[in-house]
Design goal:
mainly alpha, 5 helices, about 60% helix, about 5% strand
């Protein structure tokens, strides 16, 4: 239900507003996260500090420009998975990241393969349309 304020696991970094006392306790965004998961990490630390992350339906956030992933989508997939690994390595039990790495690398490879396939199919469809139009 999106009509009531409710605790959530995490919110987008573009929509994260915190009290000064929380920032003093947990710090700001971790600079080790270039992109992706920096907001998840911040919310994780919020919960670990015994604060809540709350979704407020009356809050309206406008993220005017967000085109980083459009410029190099395949590179961004790799960065996303690296950030996920960094999050797990930093915040979960020490033995978990080694077990999860093959899964994340396989996921990254599948995502890149899927994007490449879509790119190839779209280009082939464009070529076929141009040939038929002649």
């Amino acid at each position: 239900d999106h009509s009531e304020a409710t605790p959530v696991d995490w919110v987008s970094g573009a929509a994260f507003i915190a009290r000064e006392e929380l920032v003093e306790k947990i710090g700001l965004f971790d600079p080790e996260f270039f992109m992706y998961c920096e907001d998840v990490d911040l919310c994780w630390r919020t919960w670990k500090a015994d604060y809540k992350v709350i979704y407020l339906p009356e809050a309206v956030i406008t993220h005017a420009i967000g085109r980083s992933t459009d410029k190099a989508p395949n590179r961004m997939i790799g960065r996303f998975h690296r950030s996920m690994l960094r999050f797990y390595a930093k915040n979960m039990l020490p033995e978990r990241p080694l077990l999860l790495r093959p899964i994340f690398y396989a996921g990254a490879a599948l995502a890149v393969a899927a994007r490449a396939s879509i790119f190839i199919l779209r280009n082939k469809m464009d070529v076929l349309k141009r040939r038929r139009a002649r």
